[in-house]
Amino acid sequence: MSLSSAKLSVLITLALLTINPIMICDGIDDVVGGLISELNYLRGRGLDISNLTARLSEAVKAYYSGDVNLTLKLVGDVRSEVSMLKDVAEVTYLRLTIAKYVTIASLLSTPIITYFLLPTVYAYIWYYLRRRWVVR
Amino acid sequence: MILDDEVLAVITAVATIASVLGVAQLIRPEVSESFTAVGLLSEDCRVGGYPNKVLVNTSIKLCIYVYNHVGEAIYYSIKYKLGTDTTLPTNTTPSPAAVLAEWGGVLNHGVGETTLVGVPIPEVGLNNAVLIFELWLYDVGSNSWVYSGRWTHLHVELIRPVG
Fold it and tell me: ipTM greater than 0.90, yes or no?
């Protein structure tokens, strides 16, 4: 019973693998559109997607020129890389957001720091540079 | 006070302006005006040198330039049609002529791409025709192609072999 169910699962897997290329090539727009959505999501999280868009574009061009195998390979590559990048997307977004707001806070505090600290710093430097002066 | 009050006021004012400009740069939207562009180039992918007479039932080589500045990656398609002055597209409607060929690609934001394509010239019973290249974008929300309102065209004289 367990052997026949294992055979059945292998057969189903093989069948899915066999029809998958046809499914992808019949609905190239849906496949590429879905990947574009995911790429734009990653871009919105601050990740560089230029390499992936170039490869996806290559896949589309391969499809238009009739090279189904290359299309499938490139789409598969992009899809696996997108799923890998999704794992780091949130961490990257958090890191970039923190960096952004820390920069904004630093920039906004610059005038206040300048107003309160500049006279002290200036006086310190002024006296430091004249420390060897002798008043006669 | 060693540092004069007026000098301190000027320095603080300069620091305030620089700080505000810096923050504005950080929080401004990446794209203030989004657009796409499509252009037609010659066989050598240069402006000018376009064919003005083409032989029917052959194909000619042309370069098509597409640029993306919409703030995100796009999936585009160039739809090629052969029409006349009366079937030219507008900014809102595509040409009613039939699609004869299509070329597609994916572009990241801020990226342009030039593609050399073979443009088929079928017999359509015209002496003067217009090669129309429309830019369509794939709308991932509705999963359908949407005319971008951008097109480029080339007027040509169709010639046929004698005899």
Answer: no
